[in-house]
């Protein structure tokens, strides 16, 4: 199937990724047969509610799934053919930050509390330098100050400890660290969920500006649809570990195809509607006891009989727009007997 | 008749680090001179909005009488809640209830969820018999859209977050209070369930005539549910008035910045590109410890005058703004926000 | 872990409880049998310099040592629960005073203070007095740990909910906090008993124990005083050590097991 | 560090010393009459534990010293004055030896043994405990938790008996008792120090074994919590080496509460050490105490107790002063 729309170059190609968690009550498929292509220099937003597998997907790309979880299948190939899921320990360590960097969710607590900010960045730079090529202290400091300038921090911050910084400043320091080796891919897991909205906008603008400068790809994970609408160029929707819809941000917001996406979009509160509340009926699914067929069918207002037994596949329904729903399979193909 | 609940110039100062031998004492003003009153006979839905550290939860806890103010007083039917006698205390607890942010934490993990429903019935003598109590509980659960047979007899961890929060709403319903203080009731609930919970609160307000004080950092949900809104900044009220006016046409520079910062769910509306004027605050403590307008350090329109604390200027009938930009307008007497809100109700 | 610990303690208790049925405990007195006998069928644990049969000594001594531990642990724990709950729940000046006192006293070497006390009343020391002496310091750790537990629990939303449900302070402490603290309290109690036994054995090993009762610590004291080690009488000191080790490890396992119950974060890692 | 804090903390230390001294003064006077010294001496003489010729001289010395004819509060003030100038009086059993002198001779031995063994025990235990909770540590290290726990449960003096029996008596690797070989001149020579070192191995081993277990257990718990922190996750995502994450992010942070615990448990450590000295007849303060207990030498007992309380108080105070250097979040000064 052709995923490459237009003439965009592929940066990361995820195929058939499966992450399982072994629990006492059976295996939970936290990431379930995910296929996803990220292009060079794009801003991709991955949306889902808690337990949808979006954070697990990010950790799997960095190979940081801890027991009892494990990557059960799949591949994640970078543009030079490197499969992230097949690298050995030292190789994946070298990929982290240098090619794939992460901006953390809990910036409040993501910096080592007993180390000065500058020292933490310099340590990271040194750990990634080839043996014998470790720059001297002065060069390192210059490098850190340059990074600080780019993210809008004063050089004096290098001498401070994390507890002396505000939440926004901490997140800026984390971003400075993430871009320190010019990565091709930045994974940002709800980078502003712990911040106030005023600071959130400043941080997101900084991230956007840096993404432009570096021409890097940003994978933004979150559940705030407003943030996604503003930041992302393409959006993917996850439900129960599966990718149910992928498409350009305008299409997702103005012309959603999957019933789950449609409900999600219509449930966003805005300043136009007052005293009216639209949610998604039913309860979220349990990964340990998932329904057969389409995972969403018990809550889906448009479900048909076949949804209970047939698992839908992600299929292209319009230019660049992929949906995993039997209703669309029916549209395209003649009903299968 | 005195109002149901009235906060009169309440203040809260936290002392940090004080120990018998060690640590220096530092002071943080979490709430500075806050006044509000809620009438019993005319239900209202009021939002107190602010970002983290604005003092909104402190105000909620003082209104509930679980935290003593450092200055000023909280009055229940004209009587200081600290001086309530036993039966007064009982009526206060019954009339003023709460819904909390984390729908898991409010359940004692030792008990089944029934505990949270049966205790108030028993404590406030709401039912004559066990059967009656059980019927009342079932009815309340059904009202919030839960099936009693699926919820009763379970432990909190066996239910979903949405179910747990709805049970706390059922609990509030059971008590038939006159006022519910809801502290971030949906901030820990998934977006798809948020609407259901808010709809539940709205039903209690519309159909049962219960007043609400809705504490939140999320102005979009505040707009959806409330009629009046109070915007807090570092423990002080920046702007207050009808939700429609304050959100659609903010007047205080802080409110403006706040509303412009919200990412609207419309792709390509320029939120990310548009250059915003960023004024970096050098000293984070200065905003907390200033005697003047706490926003002055970041304010694009700051003047010399802002070193003084600005009074409330009543820029129109349904709104008051605590900012010298509006000093032409009349000063609101006695800081009584209730005056402003009443105007909207007329 | 919990089960293993309980088994060990049960074994020790049964040994003391059932022992007298099979063995004549009079043989624990001096001059009861031939002195300095190696372990044999007749004297499975051997005999000491004064002609005490060590099996009989153990059967008498193990329960005595356990009794000191339980008595002192109970007294210390009761005080600790009272002070810890008062301090943690009430807060304010009471809390500052209690916490300050405990933190200060904890920096004082307990055993050394006990030495000072015990050496003044040396002649009158019996098993019960020994327990009281040890108990005089056994309340500090429980107070400290219970206080901090109550302090964190007091801030929990369900305590606020209980207030809104019309419960008063006493009801909140007993109905809301206490049940959740049970595993902690049990672990604390085990630790208090452990500490009490440790201290009493230590005092006794210095010769500051009940002179006429063959507790485990006193047996070790006699063994040290009469140079059992150099004279090759290994059974004299090795056997009480075995029992002491059994008791300590058993109690520690119980405490660790209870801690796991109370603290799910630890549970995941083990 | 602010002045205010320093003054408060020193005051606390002085209060502890004062309280300990007061207890020392009043407890012996509770049961007995107005002249505790003569009474104690009488008891001692009756049991033959005292050299007869010393009695009268000592009684006189004490009467002059305490002014036993003077009112109680004058006696008390004199006593306090003596305590704060570290004048602890005469030994009852070894008159005219002074208590201060006896303790002074013993203290270097105790401090030497204790410092070395506690430091080794703390360092080793902390490291092993941290490793036993580190997800990517070798399996055998992670399985060490149980044996370490067992070790921590057994008091060091009992472990001492066991190592003494096996390594000293059976294998004859180390001397059985004493701080140095009898007959050897206690002069500062390499030979002498080696001899001292040789003698200290077994008692040190006994303490180290128990200490390793104790600290490992505490550290394990702290490390479990720390390894779940966000900053560990981010450090890993940033591609730091496993070893760097372990030492500079994990161990460094998990250790902070351990250091507080070190201050608090120092009191118990010392107490356990005292009995170890007895077992090994090590010429430290514990042996002095043991002999004093056996001879009912109350002035020495009280002197040792007082000195131990004072020195532990001093160490905890110093640790409180130095702690902010290790944890930047704790500060005794006000942040402006």
Describe this structure as you would to a colleague.
The complex is a heterotetramer of chains A (337), B (346), C (270) and D (336). Helices cover 30% and strands 23% of the residues of chain A. Chain A has helices spanning 54-61, 89-95, 117-128, 137-151, 167-178, 197-214, 225-231, 249-254, 259-266, 326-332, and strands at residues 10-23, 26-39, 43-47, 69-78, 100-103, 185-189, 217-222, 234-239, 242-248, 315-318, 321-323. In chain A, helix 6 links the parallel strand 6 (185-189) and strand 7. The longest helix of chain A has 18 residues, at 197-214. Chain A is globular. Mean pLDDT of chain A is 89; it is low at 1-5 and 333-337. Chain B is an alpha/beta fold. Chain B has 2 domains: 5-226, Rossmann fold (3-Layer(aba) Sandwich); 241-345, no CATH class. Helix content of chain B is 34%, strand content 21%. In chain B, the strands form 2 sheets. In chain B, strands 6-7-8-3-9-10-12-11 form an 8-stranded mixed β-sheet, with helices on both faces. In chain B, strands 2-1-4-5 form a 4-stranded antiparallel β-sheet, covered by helices on one side. In chain B, helix 3 (114-123) runs parallel beside helix 6 and helix 6 runs parallel beside helix 7. The longest helix of chain B is centred in the middle third of the chain and has 18 residues, at 191-208. Chain B is globular. With 270 residues, chain C is mostly helical. Chain C has one domain (2-266): MetI-like (MetI-like fold, Orthogonal Bundle). Chain D has a domain at 100-296: MetI-like fold, CATH 1.10.3720. In chain D, helix 1 packs antiparallel against helix 13 and helix 10 crosses helix 11 (242-280). The model of chain D has no long low-confidence stretch (mean pLDDT 80).
What's this model, at a glance?
Chain B is an alpha/beta fold and 346 residues long. Helices cover 34% and strands 21% of the residues of chain B.
Q: How helical, in percent, are the residues of chain C?
A: over 70%
The SS-based structural class of chain C is mainly alpha
Order of helices and strands of chain A: EEEHEHEHHHEHEHEEHHEEH
Q: Helix count of chain C?
A: 11
- The average pLDDT of chain C is 84
Helix content of chain A: 25-40%
**What would CATH call the architecture of chain C?**
Orthogonal Bundle
**How many structurally independent domains of chain C?**
1
Class derived from helix and strand content of chain A: alpha/beta
Q: Regarding quaternary structure, how should these chains be classified? A: heterotetramer
CA gyration radius of chain C, whole angstroms:
22 Å
């Amino acid at each position: 199937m052709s995923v490459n729309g237009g003439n965009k170059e592929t940066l990361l190609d995820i195929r058939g990724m499966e992450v399982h968690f072994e629990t006492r009550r059976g295996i939970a498929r936290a990431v379930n047969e995910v296929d996803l292509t990220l292009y060079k220099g794009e801003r991709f937003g991955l949306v889902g509610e808690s337990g949808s597998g979006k954070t697990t997907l990010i950790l799997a790309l960095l190979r940081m799934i801890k027991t009892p979880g494990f990557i059960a299948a799949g591949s994640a190939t970078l543009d030079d053919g490197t499969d992230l899921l097949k690298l050995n320990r030292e190789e994946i360590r070298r990929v982290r930050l240098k090619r794939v960097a992460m901006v953390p969710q809990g910036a409040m607590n993501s910096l080592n509390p007993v180390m000065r900010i500058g020292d933490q960045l310099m340590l990271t730079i040194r750990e990634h330098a080839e043996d014998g090529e470790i720059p001297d202290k002065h060069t390192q400091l210059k490098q850190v100050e340059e990074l600080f300038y780019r993210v809008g921090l004063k050089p004096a911050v290098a001498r401070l400890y994390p507890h002396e910084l505000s939440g926004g400043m901490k997140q800026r320091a984390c971003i400075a660290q993430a871009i320190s080796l010019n990565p091709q891919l930045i994974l940002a897991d709800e980078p502003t969920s712990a911040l106030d909205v005023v600071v959130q906008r400043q941080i997101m603008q900084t991230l956007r500006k840096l993404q432009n400068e570096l021409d890097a790809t940003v994978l933004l994970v979150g559940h705030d649809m407003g943030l996604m609408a503003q930041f992302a160029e393409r959006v993917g929707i996850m439900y129960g570990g599966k990718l149910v819809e992928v498409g350009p941000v305008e299409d997702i917001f103005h012309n959603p195809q999957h019933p789950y996406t449609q409900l999600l979009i219509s449930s966003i509160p805005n300043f136009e509607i007052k005293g009216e509340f639209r949610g998604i009926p039913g309860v979220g699914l349990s990964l340990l006891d998932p329904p057969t067929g389409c995972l969403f069918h018990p809550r889906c207002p448009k479900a048909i009989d076949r949804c209970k037994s047939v698992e839908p596949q992600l299929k292209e329904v319009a230019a660049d727009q992929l949906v995993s729903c039997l209703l669309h399979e029916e549209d395209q193909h003649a009903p299968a007997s | 008749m005195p109002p149901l609940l009235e906060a009169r110039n309440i203040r809260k100062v936290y002392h940090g680090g004080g120990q018998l031998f060690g640590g220096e004492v530092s002071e943080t003003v979490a709430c500075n001179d806050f006044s509000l009153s809620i009438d019993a006979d005319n239900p209202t839905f009021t939002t107190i909005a602010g970002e983290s550290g604005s003092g909104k939860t402190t105000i909620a806890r003082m209104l509930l009488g679980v935290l003593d103010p450092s200055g000023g007083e909280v009055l229940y039917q004209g009587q200081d809640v600290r001086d309530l006698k036993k039966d007064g205390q009982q009526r206060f607890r019954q009339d003023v209830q709460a819904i909390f942010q984390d729908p898991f934490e409010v359940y004692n993990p030792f008990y089944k969820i029934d505990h949270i429903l049966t205790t108030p019935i028993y404590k406030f003598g709401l039912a004559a018999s066990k059967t009656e109590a059980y019927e009342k509980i079932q009815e309340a659960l059904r009202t919030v859209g839960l099936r009693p047979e699926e919820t009763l007899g379970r432990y909190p961890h066996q239910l979903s977050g949405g179910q747990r929060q709805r049970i706390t709403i059922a609990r509030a319903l059971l008590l038939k209070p006159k006022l519910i203080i809801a502290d971030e009731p949906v901030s820990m609930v998934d977006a798809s369930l948020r609407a259901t919970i808010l709809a539940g609160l709205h039903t209690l307000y519309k159909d049962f005539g219960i007043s609400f004080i809705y504490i939140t950092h999320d102005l979009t949900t505040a707009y959806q549910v409330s009629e009046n809104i109070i915007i807090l900044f570092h423990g002080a009220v920046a702007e207050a008035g009808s939700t429609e006016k304050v959100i659609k046409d903010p007047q205080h520079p802080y409110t403006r910045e706040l509303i412009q910062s919200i990412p609207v769910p419309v792709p390509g509306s320029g939120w990310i590109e548009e250059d915003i004027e960023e004024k970096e605050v050098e000293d984070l403590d200065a905003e907390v410890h200033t005697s003047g307008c706490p926003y002055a350090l970041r304010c694009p329109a700051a003047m010399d005058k802002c070193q003084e604390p600005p009074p409330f200027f009543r820029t129109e009938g349904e709104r008051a703004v605590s900012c010298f930009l509006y000093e032409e307008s009349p000063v609101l007497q006695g800081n009584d926000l209730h005056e402003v809100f009443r105007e909207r109700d007329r | 872990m919990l089960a293993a610990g309980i088994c060990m303690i049960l074994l020790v208790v049964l040994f003391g409880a059932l022992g007298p049925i099979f063995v004549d405990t009079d043989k624990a007195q001096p001059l009861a049998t031939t002195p300095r006998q190696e372990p044999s069928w007749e004297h499975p644990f051997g005999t000491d310099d004064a002609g005490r049969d060590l099996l009989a000594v153990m059967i008498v001594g193990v329960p005595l040592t356990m009794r000191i531990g339980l008595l002192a642990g109970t007294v210390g724990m009761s005080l600790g629960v009272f002070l810890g709950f008062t301090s943690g729940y009430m807060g304010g000046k009471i809390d500052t005073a209690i916490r300050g006192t405990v933190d200060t006293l904890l920096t004082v070497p307990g055993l050394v203070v006990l030495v000072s006390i015990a050496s003044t009343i040396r002649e009158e020391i019996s098993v019960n007095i020994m327990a009281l002496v040890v108990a005089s310091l056994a309340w500090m750790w429980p107070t400290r740990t219970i206080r901090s537990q109550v302090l964190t629990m007091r801030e929990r939303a369900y305590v606020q909910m209980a207030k809104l449900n019309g419960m008063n302070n006493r009801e909140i402490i007993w109905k809301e906090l206490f049940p959740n603290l049970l595993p902690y309290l049990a672990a604390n109690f085990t630790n208090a008993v452990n500490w009490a036994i440790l201290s009493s054995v230590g005092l006794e090993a210095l010769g500051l124990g009940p002179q006429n009762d063959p507790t485990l610590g006193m047996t070790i004291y006699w063994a040290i005083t009469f140079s059992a080690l150099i004279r090759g009488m290994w059974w004299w000191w090795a056997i009480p050590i075995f029992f002491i080790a059994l008791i300590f490890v058993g109690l520690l396992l119980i405490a660790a097991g209870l801690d796991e119950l109370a603290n799910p974060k630890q549970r995941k890692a083990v | 560090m602010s002045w205010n804090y320093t003054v408060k903390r020193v005051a606390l230390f002085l209060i502890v010393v004062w309280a300990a001294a007061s207890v020392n003064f009043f407890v012996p006077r509770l049961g007995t009459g107005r002249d505790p010294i003569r009474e104690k001496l009488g008891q001692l003489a009756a049991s033959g534990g005292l050299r007869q010729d010393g009695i009268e001289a000592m009684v006189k010395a004490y009467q002059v010293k305490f002014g036993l004819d003077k009112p109680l509060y004058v006696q008390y003030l004199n006593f306090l004055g003596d305590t704060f100038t570290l004048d602890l009086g005469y030994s009852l059993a070894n008159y005219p030896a002074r208590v201060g002198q006896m303790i002074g001779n013993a203290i270097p031995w105790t401090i030497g043994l204790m410092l070395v063994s506690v430091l080794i025990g703390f360092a080793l235990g902390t490291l092993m405990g941290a490793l036993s909770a580190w997800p990517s540590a070798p399996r055998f290290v992670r399985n060490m938790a149980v044996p370490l726990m067992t070790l921590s449960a057994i008091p060091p003096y009992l472990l001492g008996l066991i190592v003494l029996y096996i390594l000293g008596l059976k294998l004859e690797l180390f001397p059985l008792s004493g701080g140095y070989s009898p007959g050897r001149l206690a002069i500062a020579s390499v030979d002498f120090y080696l001899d001292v070192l040789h003698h200290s191995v077994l008692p040190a081993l006994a303490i180290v074994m128990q200490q390793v277990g104790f600290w490992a257990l505490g550290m394990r718990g702290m490390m479990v919590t720390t390894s779940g922190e966000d900053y560990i996750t981010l450090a890993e995502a940033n591609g730091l080496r496993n070893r760097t994450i372990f030492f500079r992010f994990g161990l460094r942070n998990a250790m902070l509460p351990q250091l507080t615990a070190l201050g608090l448990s120092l009191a118990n450590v010392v107490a356990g050490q005292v009995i170890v000295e007895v077992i090994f007849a090590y010429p430290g303060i514990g042996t002095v105490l043991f002999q004093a207990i056996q001879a009912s030498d109350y002035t020495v007992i009280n002197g040792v107790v007082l000195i131990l309380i004072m020195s532990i108080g001093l160490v905890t105070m110093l640790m409180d002063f130095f702690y902010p250097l290790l944890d930047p979040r704790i500060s005794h000064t006000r942040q402006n």
